[in-house]
């Protein structure tokens, strides 16, 4: 979220707000994967499968964030920072469940 806000301020005002989301996504993908895998879901094994699934869930979140921010800021005229917090917060909740039940899902016998 902080990277998105940073890009909102650094990019020229003529650029679509959604570009800030895409740039932040690109910069944070690797760190987010490691943090989710080790700190949030604490899983082992299946690194490549987990990464591909993580990217799939995050890509859906990226599209929702870009569309939501574009709609809120550039179409509805909402203030950038509050709109960013609300849109990204809602998408983050959805992404958590996507990661829990898809990206880092383990079968019951693998969890033992």
TrEMBL record:
Chief subcellular location: membrane
- Recorded superkingdom: Bacteria
GO cellular component assignments: plasma membrane
Keywords recorded for this protein, A-Z: Membrane, Transmembrane, Transmembrane helix
The biological processes this protein is annotated with in GO are: polysaccharide biosynthetic process
TM annotation in the entry: 15-39, 51-69, 81-98
Q: Where in the cell is it found?
A: Membrane
Q: Where is the GtrA/DPMS transmembrane domain?
A: 4-104
Q: How does it sit in the membrane?
A: Multi-pass membrane protein
Give the PANTHER family listed for this entry.
Answer: PROPHAGE BACTOPRENOL-LINKED GLUCOSE TRANSLOCASE HOMOLOG
The entry assigns this protein to a family as follows: Belongs to the GtrA family.
Q: What's the name of the protein?
A: GtrA family protein
**What species does this protein belong to?**
Nocardia stercoris
């Amino acid at each position: 979220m902080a990277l998105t806000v940073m890009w909102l301020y650094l990019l020229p005002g003529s650029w679509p707000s959604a570009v800030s989301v895409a740039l932040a996504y690109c910069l944070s993908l690797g760190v987010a994967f490691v943090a989710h895998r080790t700190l949030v879901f604490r899983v082992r094994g299946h690194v490549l499968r987990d990464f591909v699934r993580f990217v799939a869930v995050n890509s859906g979140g990226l599209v929702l964030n870009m569309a939501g921010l574009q709609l809120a800021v550039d179409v509805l005229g909402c203030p950038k920072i509050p709109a960013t917090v609300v849109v990204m917060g809602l998408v983050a909740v959805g992404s958590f469940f996507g990661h829990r039940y898809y990206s880092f899902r383990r079968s019951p016998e693998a969890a033992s």
